[in-house]
Amino acid sequence: MSSQSNNLVALDPLRPAPSSRTVLFGLDAPGLQKVVTEAGEPVWRVRQLTEALYRQRVATLEQVTTLPLALRRRLVEQGLQIGRPGILQEFRSSDGTERYLIEGVAGPDTVEAVWMPEGDEGELGDGVEDEGRSWIRATICASSQVGCAVNCQFCLTARLGLQRNLTSGEIAGQVVTILDRHGVEIGKDRINVVFMGMGEPLLNYDNWMAAVRILVQEVGISPLRMTVSTSGIVPGIERLAQEPDSVRPKLAISLNAPNDRIRSEVMPINRKWPIHDVLEAARAVHLRNRERVTLEYVLLGGVTDGPEHAKQLAQLVRSSGIALKVNLIAWNPGPGVPYRTPQSAAVEGFRQALAAEDVPVYLRKPRGRDIFAACGQLKRTVESL
Ligand code: SAH
Ligand code: SF4
User: Whose CA is nearest to atom 18 of ligand 1?
Assistant: First the structure.
C-alpha cells in the first residue's frame, strides 16, 4: 500500500468553484442551434460549432478559429464557454493503463476515467505493440455519476453513496478529453468505450444516453464499439431495448453471482430486480449480427468462485435463451472492503468449467493494479490521503 501511495498526490483544495457560464460541450445540434439563434447568428454556425467541439476537440471558444474573432469575443462576453472537463491528475501504471481524475463542470467534484491501451487484453509490453503499426488501439472507461446509489458490497464506489448525476457534457467530455490527450484519430484508430467507471449509467439514463448520441453522431464512434454496464436496472434495460440500433451501445450486465441467494447478498439491488427479471428485460434487446449480451462476473474468493458456482452459472447461461458471453473479473481489493481476491487456481478452474460447458468466456486481466484501477478506487484513495 505504501509503495502504491507514492503514485498519488493530494487534490488541490483551493481549486476554484465551477463557473456559472453557459456550457456548450454536451449540447447536441438542436441545443447548439438555440444558442446560435439567440446570438443572432445564421444557422450554419451550428455545424462550425459541432465540428469544433466534437471533431477538432477545441477546448476554448477563443480557439474556434472557424468563427470570426469578433463573434468568439461576443460569445464569451455573453457568458458562453465550451466547458469540456479537463484532467486534474493523471496516474500511469507500468502496464500502460492511465487513470485520470477528471474535473466536474457542473459541480466542484471529480470523477475517474481510464485509458487502457491495446484494449483490455493487457498485451502492452510484450514487445509486439509497435511493429510497424501506425494506429492506436485502446479502451476508454468512463463514469456516469459521482458515486453510486446501488449498494454493491464489493464495490468501492458504493461507499461514496450517490453524490450527483453527471451531465451529458461531463460524460461525453471524459471520452473526448482522453481522445485529445492521446491524439486519437477517429475513423483510423480502434477505440472502444465502456461505461464501467463510477456510477450506474442506467440510473442517469437521459444524460448518459444524450452523451452516447453525441459520441456516435458527432464524435463518430460506432455504438458497436461502446458497452454499457449495469447492475441490472430493469426499467433502464427496457428503455435501452427501445433505442434504435444506430445509437444503442452493447449491453453488459453485472451478474456477479450464480443465483439469487448469493446475488442478493453481494448486490442488494437483486431483491428489487432478481436475476430472472433482469434477463427477461435483456431478452427484449434486439441483438445485431454476432452481438452478444455480456454477463460480468466478479470472482469473490470463497463466495462466488467455487466449482458449484461455475456449474450454476453455465446452467443459467444455457437455459436463458439469450446470446450471452461471460466476462470473468478477479475482484480487485480495496481498503475496508471485506472480501478476498480469488486464488489464481480458482479463477482458472472457473474459466475452464464454463468453457467445458460451451459457454463463451473471457478472463479480464487485471489492469493498473499499481494505480488502484478498480472501479472507484482512485478517487477513494486520493480523498482518504
Ligand atoms: N454500475 C455499473 C457500471 C460500473 S461498475 C455496474 O455495476 O455494472 C463496472 C464493473 O466493475 C461491474 O461489473 C462491477 O461488478 C465491477 N466491479 C466493481 N468493483 C469491483 C472490484 N473491486 N473489483 C473488480 N470489479 C469490480
Ligand atoms: Fe454502483 Fe456498479 Fe459499484 Fe454496484 S458495482 S455500487 S452499481 S458502480
Answer: 155
